[in-house]
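The pair is listed for reference:
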Amino acid sequence: MPCNSFTPVFNRRDFLSTSAAGFGSLALAGLMNDEVRADAAAQGRANPLSVKAPHFEPKAKRVIFLFMHGGPSQVDTFDYKPLLERDHGKPLPFAKPRVFSAPTGNLLKSPFKFQQYGESGTWVSEIFPHVARRVDDLCMINGMHGSNSRHGGALLELHTGSDTFVRPSMGSWITYGLGTENQDLPGFITMCPTLTHGGVNAYSSAFLPAVYSGTPLGNASIPSDQAKIPFIENAEKQSRQLQRLELDLLREMNSDQLASTGPDSLLESRIESFELAFRMQSAAPQLQEISDETEATQKLYGLDQPATRNFGRQCLMARRFIERGVRFVQCTHSYKWDQHGNLKADHSRNAMEVDQPIAALLIDLKSRGLLEDTLILWGGEFGRTPVAQGDDGRDHNPQGYTMWLAGAGVKQGIQYGKTDDYGYYAVEDKVHLHDLHATMLHLLGMDHLKLTYKYAGRDFRLTDVHGEIIHGLLS
């Protein structure tokens, strides 16, 4: 800490980086404990993550986002194109988009067989046999489109609404708007998030107070059974009483600072994250220990199989988190879906790793009555071209692709929107990512036009100046 010849001078940044017994290394955001909440109330400061009333009656209370990083091919998964099979090897009969990552050739049929499933008769590729049996629970959006053909920009547009500027993630906006239902857990958790293509910006709160940032559990390079809140494993190295004394000192210094300089949202958010870390030492270990799950449940999620164990645990933990009041949970299958070549082998492997866990999540939530007020979102940052890249690959394609919703407030067993006959462009009932965000917020009881935050002299929102609610998706 800096000092002069007479008295030490505390700089907040230096103090927080050199003190707090390691708490400062935690990228946690959350709630203050009961003592801090009482102190905040006494000083007129509201708890930023307390439960907030929505704008209107919601259909959904929480969100689970199943992110397929890399860009799954719509024409090899959920958007069957018989003409693509018929015209395999022929030139595309209309113009390709100007933007591409590398030259592409003629039409490339899917190497996978498709079949209709359920009462809805939805066509699904053979690489998703488990999800195929759940199609009557799904709201398939075949006319998705975005604005960016690069992974980084497209990933950020999906997560934040902007492909050019750092903006708050959708999980941050949702927790900002609604708060969270559990005082001892973060409101927004992201499991095994990607380290590339935007990295932390995909789950950061940007200019929203830091308390709304996502709490990452591990990252894409860490198996999900090791992706736990790191401080819990080392809590025994320091007594609970000493940790409490340190946090009380931080709170006292923070109060003095606020009294002299006025509100400081960054400092308050940091202190609140320390308090959450302290409280989670009691709540989180039991939550992250899945031995209390039955053998049948663990087998349902594929935890008994090497191929499905990693993503299966993420899906199981997502259910456990939302059961305990976490508002937004993201599971990431990263970074595997970018098949510029070797499409058949790699898409087969990727789907095998996530198919059973995703179906298990749908089954489990439905059996527990949680699917009625939980919104599930599946998809990647874009789709892929119906024309070949190399011998057996596909390029990036934000022009038209598939994502799907399930659960609270969405129509079941429908296919909304269409791409052209070959699956390149969205052509009917198109849904832009801004529209998807507006619709998600609507399902959560929030008007996307009113969910705003003033920053740098203007009101910002997740959908910026865009976005329309897609009422055709709503039940």
Q: What stands out?
A: The CA atoms of residues 153 and 164 lie 7 Å apart.
